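> tool_call: predict_assembly(chains=two)
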Amino acid sequence: MGNQFEIKCIPYASFQSIIQSGMDHKRLQLLADMCRYNTLSSVKLAGSGHLGSSLSAIDINTFLYFSELNVLEKGIDNPDRDVYFSSKGHDCPGQYAVLMAAGIISFEKMLKLRRLGGLDGHPDVKIPGMEICSGSLGMGISKAKGFAIGKKLAGDSGRVVVLTGDGELQEGQIWESLQTASHQKISNIICIVDLNKIQSDKETREIIELKNLEKKFESFGWYVQRCEGHDYDQLQSVFDIFDTITDRPKVLIADTVKGKGISFMEGPVALKDNNGIYKWHSGAPADDVYLEAVGELSSKIKQLCADLSVTDPEYKLIERRDKNVVRLKDKAEKVVTAYEQALVKLGKQRSDLVVLDADLCGDCGLKSFEREFPDRFIENGIAEQDMVSAAGGLALQGFLPVVNSFGVFLASRSNEQIYANSTENTKIIYVCHYAGLIPAGPGKSHQSLRDISLFGALNNITIIEPCNAQQTEDALFWSAEHADGSCMIRLIISPSPQNITLPTDYRFSKGHGSVLLEGTDALIIAYGPVMLNEALKASDILAGKSVSLKVVNMPWLNNVDTEWLKDVSGGFDEIIVIDNHMKFGGLGQCVANVMMSDAILKTKKITQLGIDCPPACGTPQEVLQYHGLDAQSLADLITSKKNTALKI
Amino acid sequence: MGNQFEIKCIPYASFQSIIQSGMDHKRLQLLADMCRYNTLSSVKLAGSGHLGSSLSAIDINTFLYFSELNVLEKGIDNPDRDVYFSSKGHDCPGQYAVLMAAGIISFEKMLKLRRLGGLDGHPDVKIPGMEICSGSLGMGISKAKGFAIGKKLAGDSGRVVVLTGDGELQEGQIWESLQTASHQKISNIICIVDLNKIQSDKETREIIELKNLEKKFESFGWYVQRCEGHDYDQLQSVFDIFDTITDRPKVLIADTVKGKGISFMEGPVALKDNNGIYKWHSGAPADDVYLEAVGELSSKIKQLCADLSVTDPEYKLIERRDKNVVRLKDKAEKVVTAYEQALVKLGKQRSDLVVLDADLCGDCGLKSFEREFPDRFIENGIAEQDMVSAAGGLALQGFLPVVNSFGVFLASRSNEQIYANSTENTKIIYVCHYAGLIPAGPGKSHQSLRDISLFGALNNITIIEPCNAQQTEDALFWSAEHADGSCMIRLIISPSPQNITLPTDYRFSKGHGSVLLEGTDALIIAYGPVMLNEALKASDILAGKSVSLKVVNMPWLNNVDTEWLKDVSGGFDEIIVIDNHMKFGGLGQCVANVMMSDAILKTKKITQLGIDCPPACGTPQEVLQYHGLDAQSLADLITSKKNTALKI
């Protein structure tokens, strides 16, 4: 069929036949392009993943595994191996492809990128060849220090090589680790900066300029070299020089091109084509784009094979799909879009509103505000601590800062700064984006499941998660206009799986939720589009079994009004609360506290559902099911309760 | 009486008479020494406080307020004022003395350092002249950015001047803020580094060397000047030059002497006298030392007054005390001492034990381990994030890292790094020192009251607070030898107010506490030496009223065994839980959860005591009482409950 397209991958045997024919820099180039092919295909299969950074780092990865490191010779578990890992972590699709080529992970595993039991969207130690968990930026050199000190204490040989991004250098922890590594004279560390000059979607020099990196690293006591990161001869020369430096840690600043290898994804061109915005940082390419990219790569591979007089690799068909299927994504509401619009509306009303971002402008829905009020938009780069404290200073000057990042970074990385701000009795709105379990492809470094617990012990903080577009605007306006202290708003990042309809008499009133669906047999309280969708779908399943489920939306995650709870739970002996969060610190605990404080409520049972183990990586349905939070699991739970009790 | 000594302070009028006689650099020197006198006296009155850093910064403070800043001219609330604050914050006794001299805070207020309703041990915005809350390091330049951006948006004039320490430059946030301030072209910021070259108790170059600071700041895009920080002519020259630089942020690296002005407290000498350990960073001097110091200062002041032909200042008697009273401090047990010994004992048994510190070696009881096992002790400087991730790397290499800092810094500043480590399924022991409300003199930047909530949502973490020396060793050994995941141990930093005696049949068994005192009328569950002391003292008060109080020690803060709780609360209708922590996330919530899950326990009432507002600053008794957690408040609460119910 003309309207179908195919995803293909190059199998292990094809790599082996090249490798066994001997190794030289031209062969490395061929291997790298074959890995590029597999990277593109695995991301396309997964439906998401990071291409730009995988492609910029893949020559370095190929050079390291197939030429420089002793890993293939010693074995990945040998204590004397060279330990290598990526600090940024989002280049892992490329690294997985190289690890497959090296026989460290299987071909089948490579095809399961971002799937349950497969390869996490960011590195995880359970995956062979992955030495650390990463995905949150700036930790790699510190981790490398731990490995290097450990090697020394244990008397093991081998270097520790860590790859960092360039945007990542904006994280303060990097500079902590540079200074301590140098002071502690940890000489068996080599850091490679993948200097591809583009952050998530803009040039680094536009976000926060890195300035003279050589001078910076030197002033922190490191031995510095710089070369082309796609040139194997140059890479080899630098590593040869590094062998002679034994008195301090070493860094290679590797000039690379983001998206390298696919002409239209390559940094300079791709930026010019799209008004300075780089669109290949994350996400799978559309069908036609994928075909164009792999077409380009297979031509290159063909030419290289001809030059080297080796056989063309096999291209194994993995999947055949209908092209351009319309997906939910294109139709469903996004709360972050509602937030984007509400922010502009609020910005028009209040000239004291200032919006801060840590290099997630597009993901956090800030572009409209940035366009409309450039003076009141602060792009702070990947420096959350600095952003939060700067917001504190602005608040002390009488402004109302709205601070944005992914919840997992904002609530955690800058936790002490948030606390310090809270002691100043100013008002700040923190918006924790990418809240909760879904999407689960990027994995545990990105799923924000502790943010309520991390904000909860602050003084006078209100924590809200809206369920739809309307409530998102309500949450923002309430926080700005009515809250008497700081607020934290959690927003999911995906399109809503269904558009949640609020009752006609709905009011946004602190401590009070809304009944979305009346029912008489069981009661679920949940919040946010993801879990409410599962609850509502569970009600459909249960309706088929003549079980009538009441579903309540409770956006106030640390404020539950006792009378409201009594009212909404009237006639039920049990309250089921679903947290899109770890159970610890979530809404379930808040509800339990309220219940313990009231004689009537105390007589009821509570079932707290939520996450109580590290979050899984996979598709939304896989992962919801894994944690027992999908509609079917909820329905089954309620059915089993019904079977053991007269009334829930 | 010969065995008495006197604390005196110089009143406001004496400063005014100098100031009104005109201002020149010699007069600034006189004012500074008079402020030094008051700094010493206020710290001596408080019984604690930071001298070394106050004394190194006091010339800069004097220069700024009485010569350079427009604050006294414009008024401290004027939007066009120069905003000035200290990022490190522990130099505030000196700054308070200067603010008193400037008439911004009252003489009476200055005498209430570290007292309830007085002057916090670290800066707080409620104090006139203090522009930010600080005390946790590294946030100041970021805050200054917020002020500077705010001034620009509001159209207000005035510079933003921020003082930092030198050890503080080890914090990664500093480098975030340097890069963003430069990129954002924030030119109305001046940073002054108080380069006194000594951290809490050692030379900075010994902890983590700062290397070429000029080169570092320049590579981050700042305009740099360097001068003597005690020389008013040089300070003036630098500020004159700064006026001409309008295109970027500016930094003055001010070479200072820690303890400046008191011969035997001055950096180089004081270090030599005490084997390289600086002992004047914090804490009040002993009586004789105080007398020697103020004696030295008053001679200098006398000479300067003579040189300037102005009248000697008045020395107002504030307090007359018996000298060298033996205090509780000298007799009581310290859990941190038990920890220090246990750590060495464990280090002898386990060669995989590695101890990490972030420049709090003495406070955290690490000196013995450092001495005994220098190779397995890592001094990481004030860089908690780096320390925690390095520990993660060590754990991945098979070591057992024990990570130390004050809880408020460790749990919060490095929270995301702790989370990342937790996803790697290694075992790490985190020791949160200075846990809880007491001592309350340093104030809310140091009191760790959120650490349980910050660790609680991690996977498979066990949180323990031991009540005495024996249990401290038990907690450390259990964590190392028996825990199947990471552990967090909370330790108070003060001497225990009483040595808690565990029952003879005591066992350290997860989820189980111990009855310290049998009773029949009311039940209190608490943990740690501070709150157990209050509970035990409450029982004495209540015994006088024929009320019999049962007191239970529960060291397992996130693991409460249901059967144990049923057993221990048998015969009581109510359980009172005291948290030395915010109520959110504390033991009280864990107990409430267990109660909600059990039909019998659910019928009982629970009263959760703890902290639910920002912690107060003051003496232990003042602050315990303020939060309703002192013995009398507990006894009153129980009495009032008794009066309204048959049985609690």
